[in-house]
Amino acid sequence: MAEAESKDKEKPAPPNPKFWEPAPWDHDLQALARRLAKPHGPCTADELKVVAWGPKQVEGYIDVPAAKILDVCRTLRDDAECRYDIAMCISGVDYSNDDPQLAVIYHVLSIEKNRRAQIRTWVPKSDPTLDTVESIWPAANWHERETYDLVGIVFRNHSDLRRILCPEDWVGFPLRKNYEFPKEYHGISCV
Amino acid sequence: MASSHPQTTSHSGGTAHSGSAAALPFRPAGSGEYDEDGNLKPKFGRPLAEGEREIVMDVRTQDMEMNMGPQHPSTHGVLRVLLRVDGEVVTQAVPYIGYIHRCAEKIGESVEWIQYLPYTDRYDYLAAMNNNLGYSMAVEKLLGVEIPQRAMYIRTICAELNRIGSHLIAFGTYGLDLGAFTPFFYSFREREWILSIFEKICGARLTYSFIRIGGVFNDAPPGWLEEVEAFCDDFEEKWKEYNDLLSDNLIFVRRTADIGVISKEDALAYGLTGPCLRGSGVKYDLRKDQPYELYSKLEFNVPVGEGKKGQLGDCWDRYDVRMQEMRESVRIIRQCLAGIQEGPVLAKLAAALKVPAGHAYVGIENPRGELGHFVISGGDKKAIRLRVRGPSFCNLSILPKMLPGTMLADSVALIGSIDIVLGEVDR
Amino acid sequence: MVNFADNTAPDSQAKAGGWWSDVWLGLWTTLVGMRITLKYFFKKPVTVQYPEERMPIPDRYRGIHYLEQEKCIYCFQCARACPVDCITMEAVRHGKELEWISFSVDYNRCMFCELCTYPCPKDCIHEGKEFALVTYDRKELIHDLLTYRGLSDEAKVRLAEAEKEKAAKEAAKAAKAAAAAKPAAAAKPASAPGAGDAAAPPAS
Asked: What pTM, to 2 d.p., does this model score?
């Protein structure tokens, strides 16, 4: 019995061919990109790059230029087609050490339309600054502080950009791939 | 301002009390402006009517900064709130968090997929089943595995039982915060039963690590489903007692109704989810609006705050939403018990799990709100990035907005009504 | 200092009614609660007096590990599965037999997740019902799960038998070889005495 089970374990389940399909509440990213482009939104059509849902990607998102993130987010909240009233999750991502850029991914939710969408933007590691969207969603305040704390992305015009989870005198940004674990902190061994 | 002024014990001055001061219910001493004679300028620009009395400030107070926490019984963990108080009135509040920060997200990048499971227990330790479920679903979304039906039923039963257990803590400790000691014991009596039910299926009482990627670890032992049924029967009776003990108690109502009102707009702007959002009258529940697992097949109501005892969105409404949700959870469990069938409980997965590359965000309805797991895989044994969107973290961020203008004693009622778990705020 | 009447919004004042009704409602709702307390006052308590009485521990309880050492094949699956690397083991292989040196679990780190028990191919590591882990020193929290060190008695017997068998096999082989060598030696009788002569001088 046990042997049969262990043999079964070696055979992974074939993935459901439709597993990556967006749910009914996921915003059609092409439509959203059209909405974010002029005349409704701030971007030109070629500035937006839609990475669609797919088996190798699973969740799609729209790449938007970092300079226009504030306007894009304002459109996301105020546009009649979008109405994204909750900033669900703002996450900074360091994909790899070779990548010269850091990504910031915004997951937004519209309660009115019961929809979700993701947008992504890139900032260079040499100068990781980005406009804050705190003025649009106050919820972004703590998310951006956390992103600053752990990934080291500096948000311009943020009202209170301090470390939030790590202590004030912590060195380095833990979620960067090149982060080195400290040997000790205030005389306390970390090993 | 107060300290710079010469006439600190003046009996003259004071301001006419405006009845329509809803925007600022208090007029803290020392916060007004003074004219040349040292009298407070009328704040609302209304001259005194005939026969109207002035409220005289006897002692002009100075702002004082004080720490609430990190070791304070009503902060439910190690939360420190730096309060600036003017007498009894809070004028500013700055929460300091991170005392038990473990950087779960970094751990997620450095351990294998299945090994991260025990760490999910540790952020919201009152609802560990839900955390397991959220993480497993996020990885399953990338893997594209299909979960056996029986596993889904067991998952749903466990998640809902855990929701009841978590809300029981919220109910019990909220009474405790406000000086009602008895309900705490009653809530723990039922919670104890829930924990022993969990102990029978997975062997742990708090950190379950039971719901895993691809299903659940163990099938239900013989007699387990019957015991869950017995619990449901018993709990519906006990639930009525809770209401008698606390919900309608006038002292409790007076301490929670009209306190800490969160408007619908604020709730949305600060990204509140779960009972805090529903307490403000927004009918939004992921189980209903974006159903996952079995929830689309199940029948249940989404309780929202109605402002029964005061304004809509006050502490009592949030409390009441949790109470009602417990009953709905019992309904869900009953339907699952009726529908559960024999079968396997674990999908066949490779022993050394390699997750295909991709991004996946999965939000589930935790007892405290939307618990989101955002997983980025590079097709390897470990994650590239594992972001956790904790509901308590986001719900707590409204504190600096809510606290100013309330009485110091109400800040306890307010923090308790958000029902935070610091393990998840700090992660 | 401030007008405390401000504290209660006009709504709640209207709902609450007058002072007497407040007193009455306050008393009544407290009495409703007290009735429940009174109801349970005469019932048996649900609590247990811990050190004397204990709650029943279910079969699947995740407590301190125990190892079925006889079954263990030293495959490291449990140590690999552990998220906190708290299992260390050391053994020497003598053919099929294992000479155990150590198998320890560091309970400073262990979080009783039971992930170590699932990948075990021989189903030999389990989490038991024991949970009290109180010590005066952290070093004492590193538990050795071995019931014996070195070789087990059965293994010693088996090893001895195996060695005997091996020796017997070798002897048989040697005998066979010798048997095979005899006809060869008979075929070349001249070489053997010659070799014996060569070996003789250093011995004498």
From this structure: 0.82
